[in-house]
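Take a look at this chain, tokens included, and explain the fold to me:
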Amino acid sequence: MRPGDMHDENDMVQQFRTWIGGRTGISPLYDEIVAGMIQDDEMLSLLAQISQIPYVCNRFMAAVHFLLLERDNSPLSQFYVTTGAPARSSKGVYDIFRLFCLSNSKLILMLSRSAEVQINEVRRSAAFVFALNSVRSVAGGTPTALIELGACAGLNLNLDRYQYDFGAGAVGPAQAGLVIPCEVRNRAAPPTIVIPQVVLREGIDVSPVDIGTAQGRNWLIAFASPDDHRRQMFLQQAMEICLRAPVSVRRGSAGELIGSVLASVAEGVEACVLHALTEHHFGALERAQVRRDLMEASHRRDVHVIGLEWPRTRGVVDMARELELTLTVYRQGKARRHLLAISDRRGAVDWLRPTG
């Protein structure tokens, strides 16, 4: 054994324990699999080869899931309902999972290293709609341009095409085909939620996902636990809507493209920039460039930026805390930030607690 191997294996045990600990109650299937992996020396040795890549747990589990979706003839696919298998107990899954991973180790490691982490959590649209109602002009019916940073497949750019239930009945298009629940736990919540009139929707992503292809759809599905039935249902419904009403997602970095996208917004249209669990992917230079472009654009028009992000403690992203839903208004070269709500750390927006 090489000197660093034991350290890498111990690191993988800790990473997977932390990862599954943050998903309590979500996936009995992954609970069973992870419990076996962290006690399996051969699997830990395999995982140690990719221990230094970011988001290794998400990447590894998604790589396995993706391969099953692409070729559903493996015995392991019988435990993954996303492949069309009937729901069943996860008992006994680990030995079959282990065999699949060891038999396909080169391909799984290659996918884990090379493929981009792409998670399009459509339930974040509820937070965006909630926040957009803090923009008076948007809530009043002013035509709105939505620009999303880290848009992935652009599912959240269709937020006006979904219904929402904030506890007082659904709002949104009657035949939406997708109702996103969002519990509001505070009397300070706005009495009425208005769906914005969206006239422009533009996404930016370094590696956008094309859900017009089966491979693109499978890649999004792969990043959600196969037995997380609610999330998989929302994802499938949102993809169906997006296939009927496609959106534009430009390939490139936010620092490269945000200025030109803002410049394309017509007069009389409110510019709203959205981002969720995206900022921690930006380096310092890109964050600075995005801020400069927002400041520059604000001399010509107001720009409203809605973020759903982990807070920072002394400049460091604190993933142990809940997410902050914020509205930052850029006007005449100045920025004013408002904390609107606290959301659950997964960004699923099962509830919002306005802070006043």
The two ends are 57 Å apart (CA to CA). The chain has a mean pLDDT of 90.
